[in-house]
């Protein structure tokens, strides 16, 4: 048994309730080389686009997280044949654009916003009626942001009060093309509309005032779709003319920068750490966390920069370094939207104050991540002021946090993993009330912690 496994003590399990609390204890330096699992956003899209291409798509490095598996199960309900091969790769035999089958039974999206919103887009331009359901966290999240544009294209929705799941969607074939300016910086909304456009005759255009992750555009191009991107007055205009066919292809999924971020922060704040995180995707619409950590004084070196599956990738060497508090430019937020919880952990160990703003979107993720992290870090001994659109964090000047808990993770994997990282650099460890949600995006998180800190 390696050292960290012993330090992660199981502290509770309710009778009849599948909740596993863990106390993440102070850790020695993180060293050696680790490889984080495949990118979640790219994994979802690989399965979806594979399902829309007639013939066999091969995916290497697919993230086997619960969110991605939910996407896979939904696509299988609509006729795609998805199988895992002996070498660990996945094969998808797609049915083609316009020929998805009517699913029997509801599509259970689990905890996954990306599965829900992208599949709503995909199905909106098919003559399919589908019920979407999800867990307690997903059932609170806003769906009007996709319902509004997809309704303009002709789909009909019966959502739960407040525009939430469970909902029923009646797709339309043929739908009408639209030009839609995104009212919120969201790759999920952009992607939902672009996926609906694939089976909609005519040209659909999404106008994106603030750039968000561009995996949909890059990958659809890889599947042979003509995706037109024009920058007009600083805004991206992304157009697809349907109906469009997808050609199957071979995909290699790079490591997820959102998962790597937990280890980059852990190695930055645990003294004497020197860790290499291999094969990390560094798409400029995703690498904001590494840019901000470097601005704070983190020692992050990019080794062996290369391309994997059309995405920039490098091995990251991260060494412990003193961090300085900074004011984070709100413009960088979309390129690190899922990494703020763990950035808050880094900031709570920095010297001086870190100010974040423009982060209202964090309140509608798997949990209200501003409020959840403010409570969790305060419980662990950090000094935090919660504001409407961000946190003001007074750093400890490199001193370990007191620790404590149990902190409430609200079915949110990123809160659980962020507070696990806080535990590594604390005096008494941090107990998180439930580690189950971690499996949605990073099933081997604890094993890798174990490996790096052994
Ligand atoms: O398109 C995607 O794959 C994602 C987009 C982001 O959501 P929003 O589009 O809601 O910002 C992000 O938070 C999510 O984890 C994945
Ligand atoms: C917000 C996230 O995912 P989703 O929206 O797909 O649930 C996330 O992974 O942090």
Topology (elements, then pairings):
Blueprint: H1 3-7, E1 9-12, E2 21-24, E3 31-35, H2 40-52, E4 55-60, H3 66-77, E5 81-84, E6 90-94, E7 107-108, H4 113-124, E8 129-133, H5 144-152, E9 156-160, E10 164-170, E11 179-181, H6 187-197, E12 202-208, H7 215-222, E13 227-232, E14 235-242, E15 250-252, H8 257-269, E16 274-281, H9 288-295, E17 299-308, E18 311-319, H10 340-348, E19 353-355, H11 369-379, E20 383-387, E21 390-394, E22 404-407, H12 413-424, E23 430-432, H13 445-452
The structure holds shikimate-3-phosphate (S3P) and phosphoenolpyruvate.
Tell me what you see in this structure.
The protein has 454 residues and is α+β, with helices and mostly antiparallel strands. It has two domains: 3-38 and 254-452, UDP-n-acetylglucosamine1-carboxyvinyl-transferase, Chain, CATH 3.65.10.10; 40-252, Enolpyruvate transferase domain (UDP-n-acetylglucosamine1-carboxyvinyl-transferase, Chain, Alpha-beta prism), CATH 3.65.10.10. It is built from 13 helices and 23 strands. It has helices at residues 3-7, 40-52, 66-77, 113-124, 144-152, 187-197, 215-222, 257-269, 288-295, 340-348, 369-379, 413-424, 445-452; strands at residues 9-12, 21-24, 31-35, 55-60, 81-84, 90-94, 107-108, 129-133, 156-160, 164-170, 179-181, 202-208, 227-232, 235-242, 250-252, 274-281, 299-308, 311-319, 353-355, 383-387, 390-394, 404-407, 430-432. Strands 1-2-23-22 form a four-stranded mixed β-sheet. A four-stranded mixed β-sheet has the order 3-16-18-17. A hairpin with a 3-residue loop joins strand 9 and strand 10. Helix 5 (144-152) packs parallel to helix 6. The site of shikimate-3-phosphate has 10 residues, from helix 6. It comes from Qipengyuania psychrotolerans. The active site is at 338 (proton acceptor). 3-phosphoshikimate binds at residues 40-41, 45, 186, 188, 338, 365.
